[in-house]
Design a protein that fits this description.
Blueprint lengths: L14 H5 L1 H21 L6 H14 L3 H6 L4 H14 L2
Helix pairs in contact: 2-3, 3-5
Length: 90
């Protein structure tokens, strides 16, 4: 089971973002975990880049539009989650 977590760098957040860091991390983590489960359940041989794109799209669908617009996960970390999904099905 793949269980990714989202953490935000407090140094890159403004004052409001710093106050909301923990709840925002929880919301982003929840959306990413749900997306991971959905993409994993519907996996049919896609490549790692395709899975990473699906993860990003599914995650953003699970977020408030304003949060989704601002959500820019690390490409490397998203690719790592995608690779774990692909590897799990080999």
């Amino acid at each position: 089971m793949i269980n990714p977590r989202v953490t935000l760098d407090a140094d890159t957040l403004g004052p409001v973002g710093q106050k909301l860091q923990k709840p925002l991390e929880q919301q982003l983590t929840s959306a990413l975990q749900h997306a991971t489960q959905t993409v994993d359940d519907h996996y049919h041989g896609e490549s790692v880049p395709e899975v990473a794109l699906e993860l990003l799209e599914e995650t953003k669908e699970g977020l408030h539009p304003d949060i989704a617009d601002a959500f820019e996960p690390s490409t490397d970390q998203l690719q790592a989650v995608a690779a774990a999904i692909v590897d799990e099905h080999r």
